[in-house]
Amino acid sequence: MSSKIKFLLFAILAITMTSCDEDFLERTPTDAISASEALANENNMQLIINGLHRSLYSQSQTIFSGGSTQRAGNHYWVPLGDLLSGGIIHSANANNLGWRTEMQWNSHTLPTSLTSRILWHHRYNTILGANVLINRITEGTADGSLLETSTLSGILGQAYTYRAYAYLSLVQHYARGYLIGNPSTDPGVPLLFSSELPFTSEPRSTVQEIYDQIEADLNLAISTFANNGLTGGRGGSQLTIDVAYGLLARMHLSKGEWQAAADAAVLAREGYPLMSEADWKSGFNSIGLPEVIWGSRVIAPETTFFRSYFYLMSNTFNGSQVRNNPKIADRRIVDAIPDTDYRKDVFIINAPNTNTSAANNQGGFGNDPNFTDEDEFNAAVDSLNAVYGITTAFNLHPYMHFKMKNANPGSIDPDDIIYMRSSEMYLIEAEAMAMMGNIPGAQAALRPLGEERDSAYDVTVFNTQESLMDHIKFQRRVELWGEGFGYTDHIRWDEGIDHEADGGSGASAVLYQEAYQIERPSVNDDWIFKIPQQEIDANPNLTPADQN
Length: 548
Hints:
The chain is mainly α. Helix content is about 45%, strand content about 5%. It has 22 helices and ten strands.
């Protein structure tokens, strides 16, 4: 690893918490304990786990040397997945935090970009923290310096889960997709297990080797949780056996191991009932929603303000990125949602276009083709502002969304980040069944979700493998819109991006430039993030020839 990694152990210890109580975790800011104390007992090791929780959404300069205020962990990485794949669409020109640069594919394709560098170091920071705990606990319980308890086993299970999560993120961004490449020979990322100075740099392991380690870690996490009775219940910010099963389902899906993906998805979603219409329309701002298997509870003292997930894509956040550039959805997807499906309600197809700087040049009364009467135009503006708690400072645009909404609309208050829901697990099972040619199995997996969302849903009309897969892709694009899955979905399905096809997505060719149409991943290596140039320069086991 680069010299930056040498700092990470101390950063992980510095971000630990002063209490291991979950309630305390959710209402108290971080504090530090000394490195010499951090691994002394299970209470202090719980503090390291709490630090890993916080590192998921903290501004990166608080986590490792060379971090940046402009990248606040998963606040940025989650919506980036749908921005890169063309799901979250810019309606105007706004580049706060480099969000337009990302959208135009001019960031992750550069080895010197902030995104390429910070995502790499952020995930390796998580791996280092996990390694610290795994090595100490396994060695300590073996030599008798630590007593094996249920609490310690819970910490170990979380550490294995975190390491698997970080490696899955790295291999899915910095390597060729498993199903479109040759995983036994394709270069993956460096595989690290060390937690003590001096750190040993490593070359790139193969994609297969990385996936093998991910699977091994998740199986160890599951057995550790299960063998100590830690087999259920919501974890809040803590990782649970259900999170491990969910990550296992995602991993198997990305590898095309269909039956294993379906089996893990079923286990992951047990105990997480599908959301009602009221819950689904409540804004996706709380990990307390019944479907949420995993997420980050973002407390007020730890807010990232104008670096947050909702700043980047929620049209009710009081920030210039969305006030001046309301985020819209692909109109081809929205138009295809049946009127009997309540999810269609969060996309405002006929919202007045109030933005005189809109990329489609249709902003303001007189330019908006949907309104010929100014009083009706103004009344529509007033109505949307009143319903969604925003003011005339917020621009409106056709096909804008209100799926993600602040709990306190029109404010900059912090909201939670959701990483995993039971709906995703139903869709994983359905896709896996369809790919195995099990039409009844895929229909059975889709039925609960479809019937909950759409009062006229009839899954039996999708009765071939082709029609089922098309429908499953559609369901993922609607149900999981804005939650970051578009990038990995496109790679798994080997689908490019075409904002012009079938009447157009609503994106502007002038604004999107080269990203308006992008070739599919199997023939376009721009889908693979560049390894940070700093890593190439500092790691003696990497050369310029190792660059993606």
